Amino acid sequence: MIIAAADGSSLSNPGPAGWAWYVSDDIWASGGWEHGTNNMAELMAVLDLLQSTAHTPEPLRILCDSQYVINSLTKWMPGWKRRGWKKGDGKPVLNVELMKELDAALAGRAVEFEWVKGHAGHAMNEAADARARAAAEAFQRGDEPDAGPGFPSATAAARDQLFERRSIEEEPDLFSVGDPDPEPLAASTPGSASPRLKAQFVRLLDQLGDGTAGRHPAFAARTASWAPPSGEWRILGIDQLGDDVVVVRLETPEPLLLVWQRVPAGWQLRFAA
Which of 31, 36, 129, 148 is catalytic? Predict the structure, then answer.
């Protein structure tokens, strides 16, 4: 799960306005306008966060100190849409264009909101608030705000950082060989492998051969430039690099080198070339 704080700030409300979302010191973004309201900035922080994470498969938890934003997106929006984006009193919904974009960005996403009290020492909320206010102050000075590094692509390193630094043992067991008791490695010479270990990798490669695993984001993050072998292939050898790490050399028909790591659930692919 991605956990992020989203916040907005408007000087004089309305006035120079800034928004920001924050995951970590290396993953955040901000922006704003020369003239806007606090509610506009709060909504825009959530919208940009949703758009910036649209490429990820992970659920998203948004920490927000605005009851207006949370109620708008989780309680009031269905009624507004039924009434043609009108409130119960028949008046137009405020910030309707932002609301429509948020409605579209939320569609099909696993998103939950958590209210946090603003200016109460919550570290992530304070970090988002500081960046939103800095953006507003930049517009007040006539400067461009620091847009931040944004949200990274789903590389293996980014997944470790973003998704609560999950360990290999906690990752989806896509690449296990289906053996509840993977054979531990013994000292070996290049190209040597026990019959059982070789059988494990034959089964593993058969599992990957239909290509379904290759479409999973966790697989693509590790080996974006390689697809599972199809057609004729054979194992040329299995070499031990260290504790619980092996290199499998294949002929597919071109030579192919795969690096695997043993975890409690089985073997996981870490690199292909």
Answer: 129
- Catalytic residue flag (residue 79): no
The CA-atom distances, in angstroms, between 61 and each of 1, 66, 85, 163 are: 7, 15, 26, 11
Residue 103 catalytic?
no
Instruction: Indicate yes or no: pTM above 0.85.
Output: no
Options 31, 36, 65, 171, the catalytic residue = 65
Residues 130 and 22: beta-carbon distance below 8 Å: no
Radius of gyration of the chain from Cα atoms?
25
State the Cα–Cα distance between residues 139 and 181, nearest whole angstrom: 61
pLDDT digits (tens, 9 = 90+) for 47-77: 999 999 988 888 999 999 999 999 999 999 9
Q: Is 84 a catalytic residue?
A: no
pLDDT of residue 219: 35
Asked about 119 being catalytic, the answer comes back as: yes
Please state whether beta strands 60-64 and 111-115 pair in parallel, antiparallel, or not at all (unpaired): parallel
Which residue in 36, 42, 171, 266 is the catalytic one? 42
What is the spatial distance between Cα 46 and Cα 155, in angstroms, rounded to a whole number? 23
**Nearest-angstrom CA–CA distance, 18 and 37:** 9
Rounded Cα distance between 86 and 149, Å, is: 37
Tokens of 100: 């429509």
Q: Is 129 a catalytic residue?
A: yes
Point out the catalytic residue in the list 108, 119, 142, 254. Answer: 119
Does the annotation count 8 as an active-site position?
yes
Q: Distance between CA atoms of 104 and 97, rounded to whole angstroms?
A: 11
Which residue in 8, 32, 148, 266 is the catalytic one?
8
Give per-residue pLDDT as tens, 35-51.
999 999 999 999 999 99
Q: What one-character DSSP code corresponds to residue 92?
A: B
Q: Are 266 and 182 in contact (CB under 8 A)?
A: yes
Q: Is the pLDDT of residue 178 over 60?
A: no
